[in-house]
Design goal:
The complex is a heterodimer of chains A (183) and B (407). Chain A is an alpha/beta fold and 183 residues long. Chain A is 62% helix and 10% strand. Chain B is mainly α and 407 residues long. Chain B is elongated, with a radius of gyration of 25 Å. Chain B contains 21 helices and 4 strands. Classes of the chains: A alpha/beta (183), B mainly alpha (407).
């Protein structure tokens, strides 16, 4: 996985999946770029992460610990152009989190990480140069970089599947890999 | 920033320059009021004079992106609540305020339900638009009941509707599905204070819409649905809020709706025949028979008891006497092994849920929006998406579009 940019903006799907995996810190450490989350996403998804914590008492702490360690930063809009693009994207996507993620990345020439079908097709059309990563691409990169044991990888993917209730869509380029790893 | 000018121009138009300012102003005003903020509070948020907020809410002043972001945050709302192209319908609060007088306490109790009801109806229209799949309507002409005796009018409409919907004179199983799928009425089950049973509304875009009290037993919800259905059949454009103790003198429209419910759910011919069969078999009509028959028609024991008293099949006052003897309905039902009647107690109509999952799977809405449509968080949204996909037999994205007549 090559990242052509200095930063990657994670959307809510990816934050949720990485937190559900139980390996948020390790995954973030493996990403060769500064990882950020838009304030809009943090604000909105905090309650969901809280819900995950009730089951395991870990995820919000992982999220906060990642911020504390400087592995994850929260970013706000920093120009009128970003704010304007954000609102334009919301009009098209009907989703504040995806729109903020895309608008910030677009104006700062950063990459994004999202699994959202609608957001991906929208950004491919609106911002064809935007690099779009996915949960599976990042987890695969982490497993290869850290030469993870199949047990660890399987436990992370199973947690994403079960606790995060994530399933890659049938046209996902890494569906075969996911199925193979999940056994 | 390393972005080419063509790319920068990809979305050159600022949506706030083109948006309907009056509508945006109204939405902002509603959101401000819901958040309990004054115009002066809101003005502080964007560092402006109160008159600026007045102008914004009147649609006289264009907002800067930053101002909209700041106001939405202060009101605890998403930007998508303000700039999404949602269908415009007549505000329910206005309709229902005109429908009945309520005091401040009642207002505070029921307003959140009315707002939720309206939001769900608007979401439904939006989903239909996204999927280009309007809810099929099988609406009859409005029945004219002017100067007709109530009981005769109610029974005649009940018979006509049973015939129109192909129900014969059997019990009506899953009334909610019939109203949603065979008639095309939007039926939501919503939490509301116990004394409220039903909200009914109609407009040309939405058609007939009902919110039924989720907290009631299904027998009572069925009664409320039948009651609301009569409003749709005979007083279509009159919004209704039904709750206990509402009237000192019950108006004709309400008496008609109550009478319709009994004839629609317990048709005379069928009830008479079942009663006679039971009476013949046992040589008497016992409380067990009463419970079994109520279960058969999916109505409360009370509703059936009064209906039998009306028909003079049991003596007047029988039900009151049973109650005086300390009859515990739920306990007896349990002892008799009567299971809960068939029901679908989801908040949302089936068609709504299916439009939402299809829109998600076809990439027409985001996961976050899907969760919003279902009124849940993202994680719960994923769980519901999975179960909806299982329900639709794991149909492939591609095959969902097939025309089975041409395969």
């Amino acid at each position: 996985m090559e990242i052509k940019h200095s930063h990657v903006v994670l959307d809510a799907c990816c934050v949720l999946n990485f937190c559900a995996s139980g390996y948020l810190i390790e995954i973030l450490e493996s990403i060769p770029a500064q990882v950020v989350v838009a304030e809009v996403v943090r604000e909105r998804e905090l309650l969901t992460l809280q819900k995950l914590r009730d089951e395991n008492n870990e995820d919000v702490n992982q999220f906060e610990a990642a911020i504390g360690k400087g592995l994850l930063s929260i970013v706000e809009f920093d120009s009128e152009l970003e704010e304007e693009t954000f609102i334009n994207y919301v009009f098209e996507l009907g989703d504040d989190g995806e729109s903020a993620t895309g608008a910030i990345a677009f104006h700062r020439d950063w990459a994004i990480a999202t699994d959202d079908k609608k957001a991906i097709s929208f950004f491919r059309q609106e911002a064809p140069d935007l690099q779009i990563l996915s949960t599976l691409a990042i987890v695969k990169h982490w497993s290869e970089k850290e030469k993870l044991s199949s047990t660890t990888l399987q436990s992370a993917l199973s947690a994403i599947r079960i606790r995060g209730r994530y399933v890659p869509h049938r046209n996902h380029p890494l569906l075969g890999w996911w199925e193979e790893m999940m056994g | 920033m390393g972005i080419s000018s063509t790319q920068k121009n990809a979305m050159a138009t600022n949506i706030l320059d083109d948006i309907d300012l009056c509508q945006l102003g109204e939405l902002l005003q509603q959101a401000r009021k819901k958040s309990g903020m004054t115009q002066a509070d809101a003005a502080k948020v964007i560092d402006a004079a109160r008159t600026t907020i007045v102008a914004i809410e009147k649609g006289d002043r264009r907002l800067k992106p930053k101002e909209l972001i700041q106001l939405a945050r202060a009101y605890g709302r998403a930007i998508s609540d303000f700039v999404r192209s949602t269908p415009v319908t007549e505000p329910f609060e206005v309709q229902f305020r005109a429908a009945y007088q309520r005091n401040e306490k009642e207002e505070a109790q029921i307003t959140p339900t009315i707002q939720r009801f309206e939001e769900l109806c608007r979401n439904y229209l939006e989903l239909e638009k996204i999927m280009d799949a309007p809810l099929p309507r099988n609406y009859p002409q409005e029945y004219d009941v002017t100067n007709m005796p109530i009981e005769a009018a109610a029974e005649s409409i009940a018979i006509a509707e049973r015939q129109r919907l192909g129900l014969g004179d059997s019990p009506v199983p899953m009334l909610r599905n019939i109203l949603e799928q065979s008639v095309g009425i939007r039926v939501f089950y919503l939490n509301m204070p116990a004394k409220y049973s039903e909200l009914y509304s109609y407009d040309d875009q939405l058609g007939g819409c009902m919110a039924i009290n989720l907290g009631h037993y299904e027998e009572r919800r069925r009664w409320s649905m039948a009651h609301g259905y009569l409003h749709f059949l005979a007083h279509r454009r009159k919004p209704v809020v039904d709750f206990e103790g509402q009237y000192k003198r019950v108006p004709e429209s309400e008496r008609l709706a109550e009478a319709f419910s009994k004839y629609f759910l317990m048709p005379t011919s069928s009830l008479l025949s079942r009663f006679n069969d039971m009476h013949r078999t046992h040589g008497k009509f016992t409380p067990t028979n009463l419970f079994t028959l109520a279960h058969y028609y999916g109505v409360s024991v009370e509703a059936l008891g009064y209906r039998l008293e009306d028909m003079k099949l049991i003596p007047s006052g029988t039900l009151d006497r049973l109650r005086d003897r300390g009859l515990k309905v739920r306990k007896v039902q349990k002892e008799l092994g009567l299971e809960d009647i068939d029901q679908r107690a989801d908040i949302l109509p089936t068609h709504y849920q299916h439009l939402a999952i299809e829109a998600l799977d076809q990439g027409l809405i985001t996961e976050g929006r899907f969760a919003d449509f279902l009124g849940v968080d993202r994680l719960e949204g994923r769980r519901i998406a999975e179960s909806l996909r299982e329900y639709s037999s794991g149909m492939l994205d591609e095959s969902a579009h097939l025309d089975l007549r041409k395969v």
